[in-house]
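2024-03-11 09:14:02 INFO receiving multi-entity request
2024-03-11 09:14:02 INFO entity count = two
2024-03-11 09:14:03 INFO echoing inputs for audit
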Amino acid sequence: MERSFEKYFRQNRLPHMWCPGCGNGIVTKAVIMAIEKAGFSQDNTVIVSGIGCSSRASGYMDFDTLHTAHGRAIPFATGVKMANPDLNVIVLTGDGDCTAIGGNHFIHGCRRNVDLTVVLFNNNIYGMTGGQASPMTPTGKKATTAPYGAIDRPFDACKLAEAAGATYVARSTAFHVQHLADMIKGGLDSHGFSFIEAMCQCPTAFGRNNKMADPAKMMMALRDGVMMKAAWDKLPAEKQAERFPIGVLCQKEYIDYAKAYDTVIEKAGGRA
Amino acid sequence: MSKATLMQGNEAVALGAIEAGVRFFGGYPITPSTEIAEKMAELLPEVGGRFVQMEDEIASVGAVLGASLAGAKALTATSGPGFSLKQELIGYASEAEIPAVIVDVQRVGPATGQPTSPAQGDVMQARWGTHGDHPMIAISPWTVRECFDMGIEAVNLAERFRQPVILLMDEIVGHLRERVELPEKEDIVVYPRRKPKKTREEGYQPYAVGDDLVPDIADFGTGYRIHVTGLIHDETGFPSGSPAVTRKAIDRLHQKIMIAKDEVVKTESLLLDDAEYAVVAFGGTARTAYQAVLDARRKGVKIGMLRLRTIWPFAAEAVYEVARKVKGILVPELNYGQLVGEIERAAKGACPVELLAKYNAEIFTPAEIEEAIMAMVGGNK
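2024-03-11 09:21:47 INFO inference complete, emitting structure
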C-alpha cells in the first residue's frame, strides 16, 4: 500500500476523531495528495481551518496549522497571506462554517482574490453539534433543527464563489477521490482565490436522519448525484437541476490580492 | 523628529504603531477611530507593510491575528459597536496567545448610542467583553504625545506578553489636536518579536514557558510546524480535555501578567504629596479633572490627582496608597459608573469614594468637577 502520504500527517495525533463512515478523512487525504503533487513544502505551507468536524483536519496535518474560530478561517488566512505572501495558504472549512457564520468572509475573500485555496467539506449538515440544518442542507431533508424537513433553499457555494469573484472554482466528491485531488491541485496551482467544494457523506448526523445511514450507500448517492461538467452542460435545464456538475466550473485570470498590494507599496515609495 | 507639530491623537497612535514595528493593519471604518485606519493605509505601504480594509470588525481582528502569527506586528482600531463585535477574537488572541493591539476610541453607547460623542463606557467591556476567564491589558492616554507613546507601548506589551492589548482611548483624546514633540527615533524602545530558543530537534514546544511564563511561539513559515487553536491546549499547542491541563492553562494566562504587574501597571501622581483629597481619573476626563484640581488648589483645597495610565490590570495598590492618605476620593467618569467600583474595592474602606458620573454625550467642564470636589470637601467639614 502506498504510504508516502504519511509524512504529511502528525502520526501522534491520529487516529482522528471522525465517526466511522465519515467522508472527511477521504477529503483530507485528497488535500494531501494535491499538496504532494503541487510539491508544496511542509515548512512553507499553512493550513487554516474554522470550527466544525471538517476543521479538525488541520490538527492532523504536519504543517503550520491554525484552527481558528467558527467561520473566521478566511480572515485569519487573509492576514497570514498578506503578512507573508511567500507562504502557501490552504483553508479547510465546512458548509456551516463557510456559508453560514463565515458567509460574509467567504464572499469578500473571493472578491479580493486573495491567493488562498479554500476546500469546503460539504456534508450538508452541522455534524459536530449533532445534525442541525446548514445553509447547504437540501430543501426537504431532515435535520434536528428541521425535524419536518428543511424549508430553506440551499446555497450553491460554487455559484456563490464564482459570482463573488473567485478565479478558480471546482467541485468534486469523496467518491471521486482522484478527481477531487486533481481539482484541489488545480486550486493550489492557481494564483488567486481558489474554491473547491468537496461533497462528502455524514452518515451519523445527516444520513441517519434521512434514511441513509449506510456510508457506502451515501457514497453511491454522491456518485449518482453528480455528473462531469462537460456532460452536465449538455443536459436540458430540467435535468441539470437533478444533479450537480463536477469538475472545474470557473477559471479566469485576475491579479491576486497580495500582488495587487505590491503596486500600492510601489506607489507609496515603499519596499515590499 | 523632535520638531513641534500640531497633531491629532488618532494620527499619533498610527505614527507610534509604525515606530513600534507594526506592519499589518486590518480594519473597518467607524467614527471616531477612522483616522487611525486612514493614517495606517497611507503609512504602511511606505514602510513595506500592508493594510486591508476588511468586510467587518470580526474579520479585522481575524486578519490581524493571522498576520501576527505569520510574523507581522499587527494592529486594528475601532469604536463602540465595533469593539463589541471584536470581542470574539480578542478572546481567541488571549487563549492562543497571539500578540495584537486593539484600539478602542470610546463613544456613547449602548448600541449605536450617540455617534459619535465622547464617553468612557467601555471600561468594563475592555476587561470582560469576551467570554471566559482571561487576563487583560488596557492602557489609556490623555495627551496626543501619550497617544504616540502608547501606540508604541501597546505593541511592546502585546509582544512582550503575547497577549491582546487594548489601547482604550476616548473621542476626546482621539480627536484632540494639540502641539506635540515626538521623541527622537533612537530614544524609542521597541520590543522585538519573541523567537523560539530551541529547535524542533531539541524538543521545542510552542506553548512551553520559562521563568516569565510567556511562550516563545514560532512564526509561521519558520519550519516549526506548530498548531494554534482556540481550544484549551497543553504545551504542545494541541487540545486537551483534561481538567488539570485546563486549570494550569488558565492559571498561566493570568500569572504571566500578574508576575510582571509592576512592568505593566502605571499611574501618574499629580500634586498628591500634601493632598488631603484626591481625584482618580483617566483618558480625556483626566484633562478636565486636572484643571479642576488646579482650580480647587487655588481656592485652598489640598487636592491631587492619581491618573491611571493602565486601566487593566487595575492599579489597586496605587489607589489604596492614595486612599490611606486622603479624606476622600472623587471619581469623575463619562459613564454611569464603572471604574468607581474598582476604586471602592481597592480603597478597602480607607476613605469615602464618590462618583461623578456623566453620560449625556457631553464632556465634563472643569467647573463641574470642581463643584463636586467642593461638595466632597464641604461634606467632610
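2024-03-11 09:21:48 INFO post-check: The longest helix of chain B spans residues 144-161.
2024-03-11 09:21:48 INFO post-check: The radius of gyration of chain B is 21 Å.
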